[in-house]
Amino acid sequence: MGNKVGLGLGVYNLANFVGMALGPAISSKILDATHSYGLAFLSSLILVGLIFPLLFRLTIPKNQ
């Protein structure tokens, strides 16, 4: 049980680190290209809106 918790926390920390690195980088590229805060915010919402259903689908256990 302890190994599974440690693995889960490691994956969470990895995802958090990658997200904190890529989020500002992508947002700054969008701001640099468009000079529009609204478009950067809207594109961030769209990306998050696309990612959440995928994560939700991955967390549902498969009945076998």
Which features would summarize this protein structure in a list?
mainly alpha, 64 residues, elongated
Structural features, described:
This protein has 64 residues and is mostly helical. It has one domain (2-59). It has helices spanning 2-34, 37-59. Helix 1 runs antiparallel to helix 2. The longest helix is centred in the N-terminal third of the chain and has 33 residues, at 2-34. The chain is elongated.
Shape: elongated
Helix content: over 70%
Radius of gyration, in angstroms, nearest whole number: 16 Å
- N-to-C CA distance: 22 Å
Low-confidence segments, given as residue ranges, are: none
Tally the beta strands. Answer: 0
User: Into which percentage range does the β-strand content fall?
Assistant: under 5%
Main β sheet profile: none
Order of helices and strands: HH
Q: Number of domains in the coordinates?
A: 1
What structural class results from the helix and strand content?
mainly alpha
User: In oligomeric terms, what are we looking at?
Assistant: single chain
Q: Kindly state the mean pLDDT as a whole number?
A: 84
What count of helical segments does DSSP give?
A: 2
